[in-house]
């Protein structure tokens, strides 16, 4: 053993990506726990798909907040319409990712 050299633990396969927000990390952890409970394990590929899904949903939430703020302003219809189109595209992407993950919404 070499002195002064730290031995690092391998990062957990299902650790949330560092770029995620705290809310995204919580959502990611919940979905990973569901996947592990359902199938007994979670592959790196599945974890990346879940991260992409969480990212898309977080982006849609952020865009919705931005839409509400922009809608309050006068003479801003072009910006509001552009944000609305972005929301639609982001939600469509999230739905495709959810289908690939076999996620079902509880409604």
Could you explain how this protein is built, in words?
With 107 residues, the chain is mainly alpha-helical. It has a domain at 41-101. Helix content is 66%, strand content 0%. The protein has helices at 22-39, 44-71, 77-101. Helix 1 packs antiparallel against helix 2 and helix 2 packs antiparallel against helix 3. The model is unreliable at 6-11 (pLDDT under 50).
Q: What is the count of helical runs?
A: 3
Helical content class: 55-70%
Number of strands: 0
Mean pLDDT: 84
* Biggest sheet features: none
Poorly predicted ranges:
6-11
Structural class by sheet pairing and helices: mainly alpha
The N- to C-terminal Cα distance equals 56 Å
* Computed CA radius of gyration, to the nearest angstrom: 19 Å
Portion of residues in beta strands equals under 5%
**H/E topology pattern:** HHH
Shape label: elongated
Briefly, what is this?
With 107 residues, this protein is mainly alpha-helical. The protein is built from three helices and no strands. The protein has a domain of 61 residues.
Describe the secondary-structure layout.
Layout lengths: L21 H18 L4 H28 L5 H25 L6
Helix pairs in contact: 1-2, 2-3
Throw out a few tags for this protein.
107 residues; 0% strand
